[in-house]
Design goal:
The chain is α+β, with helices and mostly antiparallel strands. About 45% of the residues lie in helices and about 20% in strands. The relative contact order is 0.11.
Length: about 140
């Protein structure tokens, strides 16, 4: 069996593995297998081909996995709670610096805390959720 056929079979096997797992397990080694397949046509040394396969596969894995996962994985849906982060709320109970006040967002009233004093009817931005309280800041005008 010629070496290029071995690389072709390996690439085919890795493609089947990648399609069946859908977890970006072997995509880098598919690319390095294709490069090794091309090298095998011009250079007939298995150790060199295997070194290219392993080193290029590991290099691609380390340099591109995080980038690809960000763009290939579907965006996770925000939960009902998470979707109010970054949204605008209206102050319904005066918020005194570092003391609990009240805001209304999405038709619901929440306890809220801020590092600054905020008057009733002012708009605020929800920064995060801490237990059952919202951490808010004044909305820039």
């Amino acid at each position: 069996m010629e070496l290029w056929m071995l690389w072709l079979l390996l690439v085919f096997f890795l493609i089947v593995l990648e399609v069946s797992t859908v977890n970006l397990v072997s995509i880098w080694f598919i690319a390095s297998g294709i490069v090794s397949l091309i090298v095998s046509i011009f250079y007939d040394n298995f150790l060199v081909q295997f070194a290219i396969f392993v080193l290029l596969g590991i290099f691609l894995l380390l340099t591109t996995r995080k980038f690809l996962k960000r763009y290939i994985e579907p965006n996770k849906e925000k939960t009902n709670l998470d979707r109010i982060i970054g949204e605008v709320a209206i102050v319904t109970g005066k918020i005194v610096k570092n003391e609990i006040g009240e805001v209304k967002i999405d038709g619901k009233r929440w306890s809220a805390v801020s590092k600054e004093e905020i008057e009733v009817n002012e708009e605020v931005i929800v920064e995060k959720i801490d237990g059952v309280k919202l951490i808010v800041r004044k909305k820039e005008k």
